[in-house]
Amino acid sequence: CPAAFTGHGWVFDGHNQTTVEVDGVYTVPVVATAGGKNVRVAPGQRQSFLMRTKDDTSKNYAILDFQDPNMLFINKGLTPDPVYPLNATAWLVYNTSADYPAPPVLYNLGNDDFFDDLNYVPLDKEPLLEPVDRQLVIDMSMENITGISRYILNGHTYLGAKVPTLYSSLTVDETDVSDPTVYGNVNPYVLKYGEVVEVVMNNLHTNLHPMHIHGHQFQIIERSDPKGGSWSGSYSNLPATPIRRDTVMVQNEGYAVVRFRADNPGIWLFHCHIELHVEAGFSAAFIEAPETLAASDLTLPEDHINACKTYPMDYVGNAAGNDYNALNLTGAPDTVPKDSWGAIYPPVGEAAHS
């Protein structure tokens, strides 16, 4: 789903859909539209399905795509505008001489009207990752910082470093690479190689957020209903073979719990997949096995160095570009830009913005 903001659902009228893949993970085939259920994806999610066509070619069928009105209107206490283009229609054509029917009319769709993607099972049936070696509890909310509305994770908004975080991990002294201080204000979380990491996302905001990780497909352990509150610390029902994805929609004022094994050394962004939210600081950097990166034979490619020089930007040292004392962050970005452009400018109140 390449949407910039809302999730999308879709209907092939008169046809069932058998889901076989989500976010690059093959699933045990399941008819997700059985019993009148609908299917949907959040921004950043992908889904593949098989669909058997009709033997009868006497009529055509509508294809309906619809945006999630909850994100645009309902969660903010607004009534959907009847002229707002929430829907798009196409047709599955069997007979070019037959009529092109109107799409089905769907009323008041709620969570129960959709197939719950946590009910998918990975085809390889990878068992639940346990025990947990590292737990990250991340509270996600919004705050007005010096007149600019920003998203914050555990009280901190993402501020880009002078030196790309990957380059810092490859150019500072090996004795310093595991110290999160080196990476500045990118919301750094340093992970050890091979540990099972559990991420608890408490969405304190009034809207849904599709949370995405680079470099991994995580097991989705649990997710609350809308307004389910923050995670209590107790699991309600641990799945034996949880579905794996790289994006999970976290319900408004609810939570989600995911797990992955830190077996892919690198610098991996963890962020909301709504692009204007990324621009407004809704990101963190998972610094995975930096000591492995530092001990490897990886070096900065010459074309990367040339691009940095042309831009120009720093490419050696810590977040401040300091290559002689990695723990000296003098000069690293530490304030929210006040330029009159970009996401959520001018500042708005919590109730007014999604």
TrEMBL record:
GO biological process: cellular response to iron ion starvation; reductive iron assimilation
InterPro entries named in the record: Cu-oxidase_2nd, Cu-oxidase_C, Cu-oxidase_fam, Cupredoxin
Gene Ontology MF: a single term: ferroxidase activity
Annotated coiled-coil segments of the chain: none
Classification via Pfam families: Cu-oxidase (PF00394), Cu-oxidase_2 (PF07731)
Residue ranges constituting the Plastocyanin-like domain according to the UniProt record: 9-94, 162-291
Annotated GO CC locations: high-affinity iron permease complex
Gene3D superfamilies the UniProt entry points to: Cupredoxins - blue copper proteins (2.60.40.420)
Family: Belongs to the multicopper oxidase family.
Protein name, entry field: Multicopper oxidase
